[in-house]
Amino acid sequence: MGYSGYLELKQKAIKFRKNGLSVRSIQKKLKVSKSSVSIWTRDIKLTKKQLLKLYKNKVNGRIKGSYINAKKQQTERIRKTNELHKIGIKEVGMLSKRDRFITGIALYAGEGTKSDRNCGFANSDPNLIKFMTSWFKEFCKIPNSKFRGNLWIHENLNRSKAEKYWSKLTKIPLNQFQKTYIVKQKGKKFRKNIHENGVFSIRFTDATNHRKIMGWIKGILN
């Protein structure tokens, strides 16, 4: 670069700086080193208004940078989570009848009704409720007519919608639902992150099956 070109860049840098641009912005515009811009403009005094503007731009830049970085991390976390889910599904593979049998026993041991004669399984996860409904039919030979449905739901949620949701999922008619329990809100504010369709319990009374299930659980634990 000749002297005239160097001088022209310097004059532009001085002009930009007097207009309140940051050293980094001038560097990007002129495509020169940051040290050159600093030397050319070091004697220029900025007004309080210009300094305040530069400060705000710097803060906003940091906030924007933090937001962009957070979004990148979130996207990467979602990608990794989906990848691990796919790996998990592949590793489990197709379940045999015995696999389903043992899985249902384990789920019942955690969330099932333990009192004698009364069989039941409660959860807010529709996938678990659907699995256990099928499990009761397959391994306990329970007909649909023997099932009873129970719903626990917060008072600020749509009770009718939730009842229809669980009825459709489990194929249990609404006339086989027992009285829905409405959870009253404590305090002025409603809880966040509560389950939209409440907690559902599928129930039936059968002493023989209940005692058999308890024996299955003991068989696994022993």
Please, could you describe this protein's structure?
The protein is α+β, with helices and mostly antiparallel strands and 222 residues long. The chain has a domain at 97-221: 60s Ribosomal Protein L30, Chain: A (2-Layer Sandwich). Helix content is 60%, strand content 10%. It is built from 8 helices and 4 strands. A 4-stranded mixed sheet has the order 1-4-2-3. α1 (3-18) runs antiparallel to α2 (23-30) and α5 crosses α6. It is elongated, with a radius of gyration of 33 Å. The mean pLDDT is 87.
Short description:
The chain is an alpha+beta fold and 222 residues long. It is built from eight helices and four strands; from the N terminus they run αααααβαβαββα.
Order of secondary-structure elements: HHHHHEHEHEEH
Number of discrete helical segments: 8
Outline: elongated
What does the largest sheet look like?
Answer: 4 strands, mixed
Q: Give the overall average pLDDT.
A: 87
Strand line-up of the largest beta sheet: 1-4-2-3
CATH architecture of the domain at 97-221: 2-Layer Sandwich
The quaternary state of the protein chains shown equals single chain
Overall helicity: 55-70%
Distance between the amino and carboxyl termini: 85 Å
Query: Unreliable segments (pLDDT under 50, ≥5 consecutive)?
Result: none
User: What Rg is obtained from the alpha carbons, in whole angstroms?
Assistant: 33 Å
CATH topology category name of the domain at 97-221: 60s Ribosomal Protein L30, Chain: A
Approximate strand percentage: 5-15%
User: Which CATH C-level class of the domain at 97-221 is it?
Assistant: Alpha Beta
Report the count of strand segments: 4
